[in-house]
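Anyone? Bumping this.
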Amino acid sequence: MIHDVLNEKEITLGVCYYPEHWPKDLWESDFQRMKELGFTYVRMGEFAWTIFEPEEGIYDFTLFDEAIEVAKKYDLKVIMGTPTATPPVWVTEKYPEVLNVSQSGVQFKHGARRHYNYNSEKYQELSANIVNQMAAHFKDHPTVVGWQIDNELNCEINVFYSDADHHQFRQWVKRKYQTLDQLNDAWGTVFWNQTYTSWEQVYLTQPTVNDSHNPHQALDEKRFFSDSAIAFAKLQADVIRSHTNTQWITTNGMFKHLDNHQLTQNVLDFYAYDSYPNFNKIIPDDSKKPLQDRKWSFNLSNVRSFGGNFAIFEQQAGPGGWVNRIEQPTPKPGQLRLWTYQSIAHGADQILYFRWRTATKGSEIYWHGINDYHNQRNRRIDEIDQVSHEIKKIGSSLVGSSYQAKAAIVIDYQNEWDGEVDRWYGDFIDQSQEAWFKAFQYQHIPVDLLNIEQAKTVEDLNGYQVLIYPHAAILTKETANLFSEYVKQGGTAIFGCRTGYKDLTGQTYMMKHPGYLADLTGSTVEEYTLISPLQERPTVSLFHGDPVTTEGFNEVLSLEDSDVEMIGSFDNAYYRGKPAATKRKFGQGYAYYFGGVFSYDIAEQMLQDLHIQRSDALSLPEKVEIAIRVKENRTFYILLNFASSDQLITIHQKMVNIVKEQVLRGDYIMKAYDVLVLESQ
Amino acid sequence: MIHDVLNEKEITLGVCYYPEHWPKDLWESDFQRMKELGFTYVRMGEFAWTIFEPEEGIYDFTLFDEAIEVAKKYDLKVIMGTPTATPPVWVTEKYPEVLNVSQSGVQFKHGARRHYNYNSEKYQELSANIVNQMAAHFKDHPTVVGWQIDNELNCEINVFYSDADHHQFRQWVKRKYQTLDQLNDAWGTVFWNQTYTSWEQVYLTQPTVNDSHNPHQALDEKRFFSDSAIAFAKLQADVIRSHTNTQWITTNGMFKHLDNHQLTQNVLDFYAYDSYPNFNKIIPDDSKKPLQDRKWSFNLSNVRSFGGNFAIFEQQAGPGGWVNRIEQPTPKPGQLRLWTYQSIAHGADQILYFRWRTATKGSEIYWHGINDYHNQRNRRIDEIDQVSHEIKKIGSSLVGSSYQAKAAIVIDYQNEWDGEVDRWYGDFIDQSQEAWFKAFQYQHIPVDLLNIEQAKTVEDLNGYQVLIYPHAAILTKETANLFSEYVKQGGTAIFGCRTGYKDLTGQTYMMKHPGYLADLTGSTVEEYTLISPLQERPTVSLFHGDPVTTEGFNEVLSLEDSDVEMIGSFDNAYYRGKPAATKRKFGQGYAYYFGGVFSYDIAEQMLQDLHIQRSDALSLPEKVEIAIRVKENRTFYILLNFASSDQLITIHQKMVNIVKEQVLRGDYIMKAYDVLVLESQ
Amino acid sequence: MIHDVLNEKEITLGVCYYPEHWPKDLWESDFQRMKELGFTYVRMGEFAWTIFEPEEGIYDFTLFDEAIEVAKKYDLKVIMGTPTATPPVWVTEKYPEVLNVSQSGVQFKHGARRHYNYNSEKYQELSANIVNQMAAHFKDHPTVVGWQIDNELNCEINVFYSDADHHQFRQWVKRKYQTLDQLNDAWGTVFWNQTYTSWEQVYLTQPTVNDSHNPHQALDEKRFFSDSAIAFAKLQADVIRSHTNTQWITTNGMFKHLDNHQLTQNVLDFYAYDSYPNFNKIIPDDSKKPLQDRKWSFNLSNVRSFGGNFAIFEQQAGPGGWVNRIEQPTPKPGQLRLWTYQSIAHGADQILYFRWRTATKGSEIYWHGINDYHNQRNRRIDEIDQVSHEIKKIGSSLVGSSYQAKAAIVIDYQNEWDGEVDRWYGDFIDQSQEAWFKAFQYQHIPVDLLNIEQAKTVEDLNGYQVLIYPHAAILTKETANLFSEYVKQGGTAIFGCRTGYKDLTGQTYMMKHPGYLADLTGSTVEEYTLISPLQERPTVSLFHGDPVTTEGFNEVLSLEDSDVEMIGSFDNAYYRGKPAATKRKFGQGYAYYFGGVFSYDIAEQMLQDLHIQRSDALSLPEKVEIAIRVKENRTFYILLNFASSDQLITIHQKMVNIVKEQVLRGDYIMKAYDVLVLESQ
């Protein structure tokens, strides 16, 4: 548990700080004001390699030693970042082989960040060395309590095509397949005469006409990218651990082509997420009732699935944006507080704001800190001050409590990665996950994410009444069996179109769909069609309800057994009247299959049929999110009003607002963006 | 004639098959089921180079020998593909000079297909060698009856910028122009100081600022690409013919930058087209009354113009798509049959479906075959079974019959290629061709395409009452004379804006437009303007009809002779009231000139004035296409219902539905997507 | 003054001509017809390097000597272009280092124009040499009166990344910063660990992940590009001046990344602009009441700010366009005349039309000259003939007169260049400049552009009653003081959001906004937010007027002094009711601050409050532009009707139409596109 690792008895706050950016005469007042704001942690060091090692083999830790001394004076604990996200220019000029390269061969140069590759032996050597020097230097410093490895692995770019990457991929493939025959089989190279007759012919995907690559190779490539990033983090973690067993290790972010579950469980002490809910203002969402900043609850649930409670190392503290991209508006009054509680609601036991003061130079002068350029008190500081006081009050109660969910959306990396290039199901995954999450949110049913690759036995699933696994194109016999057993024992499983037709190589089974799951669902796919944008979109009616427009894909189902119930059919197209959705009692539970992509409307309709247990302690309007957290025998309800207007809630049993130590019951008005933390009596 | 070449007495069906993809124990049942479906032909081998030649100089034909034996057992004739579309990785790794390169210098690597260039001497040598080995091996095998050269020449990519291409282009230019002075004249290099003073300075177009190249060089470049592809096909054809004179030779496809007329007439025994009408679902068409899948009738007419009746080597057999692109929905019930008859209606005497079974691996796992992954009977097999039974009945009657058309749309390659980079007329060609074709279709007037570059004398034109040549910017004095003679002898010729102002280099004549055609049309262009998207679009009224909006270009005409009639004028703009269209009796015929781009409405209005002879045997609704085929003294009417609904037709004279051997007269309801093959009595 | 330099007593006309393109037997009639059209000047030579120097070190001037002889015969004065815009292919093949290169490393090759870089020593040497040869040859030719250096510097491309550019940038940076510490400070390299530890590590911006570069480096890069272009022009000018002091020197164009003020004042005798108002038909403008071709008055005002009256070397003479881009429709009857007078109204004392005859070859066959391909009299020739006759009458009166403006829009290069990559204000500059210019235009208030970088003392500003400086993010203490002094002395200054928060490096001040200007405006920015496209746009009400929607940015202001007046507030968002605009009397004048981007509506509302002196001699409708020109004690009113319809004007005092020598008073109808040149009596 993270709070055991941190050895904290309460939820703690902190901030990111770059001592190297600011005149030293500001340090004293900066750290003093942090303490006044109730901060416990300060992160530093992650972009300072050249300060630590101004030239190869010459080290200088004085600047940070001094900063740490000042931090110590104000009782701040320091998290030290390893600086490998931004190699010095002396590294990249001397050893250009450490640079990352685009697929078409353009080498990324000094001038931004994350322009290195994970597989260069030289970069691994230089990285291990600087981390070794830093760990040796800081290991005995009691103010330094933990480490952040690198910064945002796979952010900015998550593909790598340097010579070192091509070379290491070849080794990776050799280890995985042992023989060329097995490689050729797995990649289906007989198609289009791609058969490899020597290991030396094997590369990561390369430039091709029309940018189309062998899809099985493309899937392995992402596995390799993930393994490379994890190995790079492990290299650093191992070095640090060779020096200390008291300073903990984490990394921050959550980006693509990275198995964060494996990373967390094999390398880190806990995971730290960077939460910027105002990104919703740069991501168009024309779906029904968009979740906007509330969608970050999905991301936080994902982080929770890596290994329980977690940290936030970068919590949005103001407007955001680089000079030339990602421009996010200013959070409205109350939103910084709301988003802090959103993190806590979903499992954050430690939160660092990004960052102390808005930078005055460089690409991120618009990625605002708590403080403005002018460094004077402002609205955001006031708001964080309030949060800090509240957390001081309730943080010891909440810390280490567990999020309660009776339902889970099932995720995995294989389909995420394979689906990236597969237009026949890839985009559906996000759409359906979001549709279901939205339905759960608006119905006030807390939901987890569950990585099925982590599930070893049916016990890992049994905690949930309902599992939604929308479009698992890749699905093995073992996973199918796991779901069958889960349903047999009383669980409910829901699948969408395109389920179960691929093996782990991304090749298709020579079976009726949904492949190994057909035994459980009792229905198969008679025929299917994608719905092209130039085509009319058929509607479907579920449970005799109103017709709902389908998008993306239609599967016409065939009921293979008499105990299978048609719960929905198509209203038009040449397959009108044919089954679109089925339900089957199987053992003690139910298996649902829907031959399409889930929209909010469809998820909402199916949800009515699921009868998930839920608390009747509160009546909430749609715009208020609820999180239920339990610790020992205490139950907390965290209510988050994402609306810009007042919202009426009704409390049906006696509750205590533990921030104000006030007993509440009956109707209550939550102000715009307000938060309520209740404990049931 | 193709059926003479094939030595068949009926229309034959077949399928594409990849024995190398499937376990051998499937072969027997696969071929047996092909026979049961009435198939005669099976194509194989075109992506199997590494199987034939696993390493340089080592050959192994056993796998295909065995497959051919099984095919033979079920009376299937084998078409063997030469495998040059996908070089082995041992070729491209050992001889990277064989790879194609983008204009900006990115080399296309192993991983997809068609990543080679036609001009590498090494690739020519390796290709000639493997074709030689194959021809030597298969020439005496009676089951192997013909060859497909390569696969879809110029598909995926139709530009080539490897060193070999630059080098060979220099030789090509030397042969064409003999002296640098003549090159400089032809390319107008005096403009922008582009004058060449040594042959070594000459390349294919290279990267330039704003991606603008010398347009005359760009035109020659396309001629060179076409010549290169034809020479590459001829290299292979010559090798095959040195071994056999009984096995015929073709290639398949129809792609850009390739003079298919020359290719067919100089290299092939007949042409084979790949017909995928469901591509209409990935090509947006916001024109009035879009033709959708019926637009493939235009393509088929184009193929017919290469050399009469033809084959289809890939007839759409299901949904289509690569993993990451070109996704086409599932054909609706009846459409596979409809499209098969569409091919026959326009001149196909042999049809192979693509492909037997949907691939389970590689980029094309969604390019569905007749059989699904699961290999069990499905709706598509039923439909093809029906077609096959029908063709067995009527194929001997129809085979070798000729398509009857009294009108033709005139095409050529020079304007197609020059127009690619010329925004002042290039896009108009397609728009006007489609507008006219649509007008002819909806008026049930069968129409041919006529490549004017193939016309040697006026006799080649005289078969048509009307010729439409929409926007021949490049037009020589010889062609102008040909049209004058044609009209003089009674033909009707129709021209659109931008006609006749360029010579064969793409330079403009120093003459009033339409240049050498002004003598025939009797009208010249007083002034003109393009219609920018930010500009109001004037309307034009023809034959005192309703105003029609013009798009793209307006030419204000001047009547140069008293016998010229103004048949339309502009309704607005500063040239309102001025002539927009003229008509002139010239000799026994008529010359029309329209100073704009043809829309469907304008083509439709002009069509009323043309009085083209047409059959009064049938009254048809708009959505039903008619093709009239004649053989000896028999006349066949093939009716194709492209609508998703029933259509009422009226048969005015006794006809026989030769599929059902049923006499028909009077009203008749064609079902959605249905086909009727009638013979007049 | 340009007319002193030209030594002309009247406004003169001319044309661009390429003798090398045309058969010599056309020259005689061409030059004769130019004379008949009243032309005085002919420009030639600028794309003829290979004719002058067919191989390295071999020179041949005979073709142009002959052409000049014919020009002389018809009293035409020749402007000779140096030919460096299009290097010969023998140069680029022999010395590929002279070529320009894209940021990602693609070298631009022979085939278009402007594919060279300014910093190659070899290109400088070759350029100096050919200019030297030409100057030596033509210096004594009395018909050759002046020189155009190169052609359209920085047109087509204005970034340069060849090795020579990287190398020279390193030298430029060394000269500017002297030490690496100062470089590191200026570029803020401590951010993201970009610290340079050796000069050899410094380059122009290079390819980076997500195409994001150090913004301070990116700003210096543009300064370097400008300096490089100016140095290249100066190199040539110095060579010419070493031969002659009677032939004047200019260059033509007006493109980005070039300080045209410096160029004009340090290198040229006067500036020559290329005016193509029909470009408005290829630039979408969805703003309110778009200015269309009238927007070229803004460009002409910009040119006037370089150094007073100027020349036009390319005045649009017909439709325009390359083969593959920039396609502009045909000017309507009257527009060529209108645009000629537009140039004169804003300060052109010499106008050359581009070009004599439409090219028959090359990329610009659609960039129409006065003459069509067919070379016969046309509508455009008639119109230019009319203009020429009119200018003969009034040109001596108008020549050298001065444009009168009481208001100016303040411009500078630092913000233009920095704003290019800064999404937090860059786009606002153009929007606000256009909004204000439009408001001035429609209110008939003549306006200048004023480059604040040229202003040394307050005297340089005092001529204006009002200065609008919309979004000067970069603003030094010195400039702030200049404005304070200007206002103190009675001027009115208007600023928009994002003013004053950056220093000359592009780093942000650690001050409240608007930084050093806060003392003048008396208001500071309490908080701000950008308005994302996914966000609702608040409205603002100024002077209790109607609410106007804001775009892009909102600043909430804080009134810092009791003498500051809130003149507008936000109507909604969480800052409703808070100040959006302030006004303060400061000394004798007023300072306005608006916390937003200026729209036409807002500029229009503020304009009402400014009480700018204006002439009451005329009442004009919106679509008619007025320019007031003064010379000695004569005042001229040039009225330009940009409407396609008749416009009623009222003349309140006796005026003379000096073209028709007609006294006018009272109502008068201007025809569509008509021009009136009035002199007050």
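Late reply, but here is one note on the structure posted above: The longest strand of chain C covers residues 647-657.
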